[in-house]
Each structure stands twice: as structure tokens, then as C-alpha cells.
Write a structure and sequence with these properties.
Blueprint (H helix, E strand, L loop, with lengths): L1 H9 L3 H52 L9 H6 L5 H43 L23 H19 L7 H25 L5 H24 L13 H13 L10 H13 L2 H21 L12 H14 L9 H15 L6 H12 L9
């Protein structure tokens, strides 16, 4: 009896109680770690589903936006106003919401794990008669998640573009002139497609190599656009290849000047308006533009991609010819003669010159179409 009293006074049972508390805390940490691992796995799967669904939607949009491939919307396309986009759009939005929820679950799981780890530190300190570390006295401070987050402005842009596209659809009726309907619909589709492409990239759907290639293509395209806008008098900033607020404002100014839908994205009508302004500027600018276009026409004619006149006038048909050449050369299909296109074409011509038995035209055409796989073409 006396021994029991001494034991109670000395706290003989505290060690067992402390061990029990530590074991319980360790079990909780293990459980919360598993929950975090499961949350990350779910988020990875949800992101993959979003990438797949959004890619399908972007492809469907391209039928009307004409950003990735040369397409020609028909009267039926305009009058039906993209009804075939409803399901791909719903799938992409649903997948996006699921991915967002899955990533939020990671944050919750991280917080719960941090709290459990703080409780374990306290239990261990109590069991050894020590003091819990200062970092363990709070309710838990989770380590910042490595999960990529999408900038809010990117999501906002998609939401606004979706709303604008719906408005464009609603504004097209049987009484709408065909050209006006086409311009209105293409402008909204291009803006929407560009918004989704930005979201697609920001969500991590591209590999590092794809991201690098896409960034280079966008930079080259934007730099060329900025130069054209500057020559036309709309852009006063630095030609840096960054499609930022200054470039958007310049495109919007161009669109306002030509009474086009103001989207900040370059659609077919905006591109045509810009080229018309460049020609109308006159003087050296117009002359250089005409000479440059004539050179493009002559080169494409030699390569077998252009059968129209060499008159220095840039038309939709010429854009289509350039895009076809780019596809065959395996370079980004921008519709413009950029550095990548010139480099690839020079290589093809150099290879053609090594075969002196054929005529220049047939040799260049053969070289372009046989030595470069069309299937290797990359979208901008």
C-alpha cells in the first residue's frame, strides 16, 4: 500500500499516459499525411481531366476562331452560332471546377497535417517533461503548397470571353448581314479561344518543352504584330514580344477606328484592317510593305504554294498559302512569314539546290513536301 502511494506521488503512470498520447498523435499525423497524398493524387487526376476537356473545347472553338488551323466558317456555322460547342464547353467548365476543388482540398489537407504535427510535437514534449518547440505551439502552420495556382485575371478573362461569346451568339439573327455576322462571330470566337489557350497554359497542361516552344512562337508573333501596329500608328510602346496591356490597347484602338468588335485579340477582320492601314499610310512604309509582300508571293510561287498574282497585295488567300507552307515545313502556323519560316524555307531551298537535274520550282516543291513531314507542324 505504501509502495502504491509512493508510486502515485512520484507519477509512475505518467510515462505510460505520455506514450499513449504520443502514439495517438503519431497515428493522427500518419492519417493526415495519407489524406494529403490522396488529395494530391486526386488533384493530379482532376488536372489531367481538365487538360483533356479544355483541349477538346479549344479544338472545337478553332472551327470558328481559326487560331490554330486555317478554317473557313460557313453560313451554317454562323447561323447555328456554335451549338456544337455547348457540350465541349460544359465538359471543360465542369472539369475546371473539379480541378479547382481538388486543389483547394490540398490546402485543407496541408493545414490539417500541420496541425497534427504541432500536436505531436506537444505530446512528445509532454512525455519527456520538456517544452514543445515554439513552432508547435500554434494551431499549425502549413508549408506552402507546391500546387500551381492560376492567376485570377486569367480566369476572369475566360469568364468575360464566355459572356461576350454568348452575347455575340444572341446578336446574330436571320436579319443580320452575312459579313457583319461573320465578323462579329469570328471576333468573339478568337477572343474566347485565346482566353482558353492562356488558361490551358497557366494550369500546367503543357510540358516544359511545349511551354518553351509556345512562348517563343507567341513572342515572335507578338513582336511582329507590335511592329505593324507601330507603323500603322496605334502602338507607341517597346517592341518586346509581350502581349501586355499596351499591345491590347493598341489592338483595341485599331478595332475602334474600324468600327470592329473591340476584343483586344487579332481576328480576321482586325488583321485585314491593320494591313489596309499599313498600305494607306503611304510613303516608305507602304512601299516597303508592298515590296515585302511581293517578295513573299514570288517565293511562294517558286515553291509551288502560290498561283496568284505577284502584286504586293496581302489577301486571305496569301495568308492561307503561307500557313500551308508552314504546316509542310513543320513550323508554327502563324500565317505570317516569321524568322522560323524563313529559316526552314532557306534550308529546304539549300537542299533543293543540291539536285541540279530538276527545275527550280519542281525541286523546291518536292523538297518542301517530301523532306519535311507535314504532321510535325506545330500550332502557335
Amino acid at each position: 500500500m505504501a509502495a502504491l502511494a509512493v508510486c502515485l506521488l512520484a507519477g509512475c503512470g505518467n510515462a505510460d499516459n505520455g506514450n499513449t498520447a504520443v502514439q495517438a498523435a503519431e497515428a493522427k499525423v500518419t492519417s493526415k499525411q495519407k489524406a494529403l497524398d490522396d488529395a494530391k493524387a486526386s488533384a493530379t487526376a482532376a488536372t489531367a481531366q481538365f487538360c483533356s476537356s479544355s483541349a477538346a473545347y479549344i479544338t472545337a472553338l478553332d472551327r470558328y476562331g481559326d487560331v490554330l488551323n486555317q478554317t473557313a466558317p460557313t453560313v451554317g456555322d454562323v447561323t447555328t452560332a456554335g451549338r456544337d460547342l455547348k457540350q465541349p464547353s460544359a465538359d471543360a467548365v465542369s472539369a475546371g471546377e473539379a480541378a479547382a476543388s481538388a486543389h483547394e482540398a490540398i490546402g485543407t489537407a496541408e493545414q490539417e497535417l500541420a496541425t497534427a504535427e504541432a500536436e505531436l510535437a506537444k505530446a512528445r514534449a509532454a512525455a519527456t517533461g520538456g517544452t514543445a518547440p515554439a513552432t508547435a505551439t500554434a494551431s499549425g502552420s502549413p508549408t506552402p503548397s507546391s500546387t500551381p495556382t492560376v492567376p485570377g485575371e486569367v480566369v476572369t478573362r475566360v469568364q468575360q470571353a464566355e459572356s461576350d461569346f454568348a452575347t455575340a451568339q444572341a446578336g446574330i439573327s436571320d436579319a443580320t448581314p452575312l459579313r457583319a455576322a461573320s465578323v462579329q462571330f469570328n471576333a468573339a470566337a478568337v477572343a474566347l479561344q485565346m482566353a482558353w489557350l492562356q488558361l490551358y497554359a497557366a494550369t500546367g497542361c503543357l510540358t516544359d518543352a511545349q511551354q518553351e516552344k509556345a512562348a517563343a512562337a507567341v513572342h515572335d508573333y507578338t513582336a511582329a504584330l507590335q511592329q505593324d501596329l507601330a507603323e500603322a500608328g496605334y502602338f507607341t510602346g517597346k517592341v518586346d514580344g509581350v502581349y501586355g496591356p499596351t499591345t491590347v490597347a493598341a489592338v483595341e484602338a485599331l478595332q475602334k477606328a474600324h468600327d470592329l468588335p473591340v476584343t483586344g485579340s487579332v481576328d480576321k477582320a482586325t488583321e485585314a484592317a491593320l494591313r489596309a492601314d499599313l498600305v494607306a499610310k503611304g510613303g516608305a512604309t507602304a512601299g516597303a510593305q508592298v515590296a515585302s509582300t511581293a517578295a513573299v508571293q514570288q517565293t511562294l510561287k517558286l515553291a509551288g504554294y502560290w498561283d496568284g498574282p505577284v502584286d504586293g497585295q496581302w489577301t486571305d488567300a496569301l495568308t492561307e498559302a503561307v500557313t500551308t507552307l508552314q504546316k509542310d515545313l513543320g513550323v508554327p502556323t502563324t500565317g505570317k512569314v516569321d524568322a522560323a519560316t524563313v529559316s526552314a524555307l532557306e534550308k529546304a531551298i539549300a537542299t533543293a539546290k543540291e539536285t541540279p537535274t530538276a527545275t527550280v520550282t519542281s525541286t523546291v516543291t518536292s523538297t518542301v513536301t517530301t523532306t519535311v513531314s507535314p504532321s510535325s507542324s506545330a500550332a502557335p
